[in-house]
Specification:
Ribosomal Protein S5, domain 2; ATP binding; alpha+beta; four-stranded antiparallel β-sheet; binds 2-deoxy-2-fluoro-alpha-D-galactopyranose; Alpha-Beta Plaits; 2 domains; globular; 9 helices; eight-stranded mixed β-sheet
Length: about 375
């Protein structure tokens, strides 16, 4: 067992399956080439020493003293993973951990899940704790829920730890069963255009928790363990809850439809499902903001085959399925629409499906 190493874990884009993970439903993300890199070295003094190339200062805490609230800010995502592992009886001791985050922050691309995933892989591997990656994802989610205090589902950590290059990850968040479905757009002359709207995340934590509560309440009223267990939309519920339910039920159906099309090599045909997902997130789930809606509208008007917000919403990114030849025109259309509305300049780039978390090498000898 080596004492140190370099570990990387990617951010993600969700192709489809939004706000389904905390309803025991289905998601279909890809990992991005953008990673968080953690350089890790075991220490014998029981101290966790955390630093970041993107932040000033160093956080130091004894692992034995870790409790939620003991560490805050970016370092909480790292310390939380060590805390969650120790809570579950895994012998994780002191570590020096240096973080270098290359996943854009605040863009809804799961930089925090990437940080947790890289940490989980680093400290377990260097401590000889053999946990499979589904377990690591669960522990990383627990860190975020209980240590950081963000009530996220398990999609982002799973994407970061389980995804494969040139494949989308179909995940059943109830059974944690996975299927790696080929997702390579270039041979079809297509591209996945990402528009980072740069819209400031508004109300995101409170509204996310409120959506979770709505779903939980609706499941309770309908007498099912989770909204995943519903198939039809015949529910007798107050209007707001009925719309939340309709989003989750139809979104799970859309994931299945997109997965079928990808398996059949009919990637060109997934566009309408992406756009339907956006409309559902806008009208029924109410998690979009004007920047997201304007970007989707402009992309579709410029010829995109489908477009939708990706991630939790209330800001962040839009994705669009676009002919390679139309990438520039679509990006220009969004920039023009944003300028016309007085929004800040968006950032546009194309994404490919990259590999999940990995050991990237040894720490160079000093
Ligand atoms: C955020 C959460 F972290 C995920 O778990 C998921 O619920 C997503 O929003 C919405 O699909 O990224």
């Amino acid at each position: 067992m080596t004492r140190d190493g370099v570990f990387e874990a990617p951010g993600r884009i969700n192709l489809i399956g939004e706000h389904t993970d905390y309803n025991d439903g289905f998601v279909l993300p890809i990992a991005l080439p953008h990673v968080v890199r953690v350089t890790a070295a075991r220490r014998d003094d029981g101290v966790l020493r955390l630093s970041s190339r993107q932040a000033h200062g160093v956080a130091e805490v004894r692992v034995a003293d870790l409790v939620p609230g003991a560490v805050t800010g970016w370092a909480a995502y790292v310390a939380g993973v060590v805390w969650a592992l120790r809570e579950e009886g895994h012998p994780i001791g002191g570590f020096g951990l240096l973080v270098d985050g290359r996943v854009p922050l605040g863009a809804g691309l799961s930089s925090s899940a990437a940080l947790e995933s890289a940490t989980a892989l680093a400290v377990t591997e260097l401590s000889g704790v053999g946990l499979d990656r589904r377990e690591l994802a669960r522990i990383a989610q627990r860190a975020e829920n209980e240590f950081v205090g963000v009530p996220c589902g398990i999609m982002d950590q799973s994407a970061s730890l389980l995804a494969r290059e040139r494949h989308a990850l179909l995940l059943d968040t109830r059974s944690m069963e996975t299927e790696h479905i080929p997702f390579d757009l270039a041979p079809a002359g297509l591209a996945l255009l990402v528009v980072d709207t740069k819209a400031p995340h508004r109300l995101v934590d409170g509204e996310y928790a409120a959506r979770r509560r709505d779903c939980h309440r609706a499941a309770e009223l309908l007498g099912v363990p989770a909204l995943r267990d519903l198939t039809g939309a015949e529910q007798d519920l107050p209007d707001r809850l009925a719309r939340r339910v309709r989003h989750v039920v139809t979104e799970n159906e859309r994931v299945a439809r997109v997965a079928d099309l990808l398996r059949a090599g009919r990637v060109r045909e997934i566009g309408p499902a992406l756009t339907e997902s956006h409309v559902s997130l806008r009208e029924d789930y109410e998690v979009t903001v004007p920047e997201l809606d304007v970007a989707v509208e402009a992309l579709l008007a410029a010829g995109a085959a489908g477009a939708r917000m990706t991630g939790g919403g209330f800001g962040g990114c839009v994705i669009a399925l676009v002919a390679e030849a139309d990438v520039e025109a679509c990006a220009a259309a969004v920039r023009a629409a944003f300028a016309g509305r007085g929004f800040g300049e968006p950032e546009c780039w194309t994404a490919v499906a990259a590999a999940g978390a990995r050991r990237a090498g040894h720490v160079p000898a000093r």
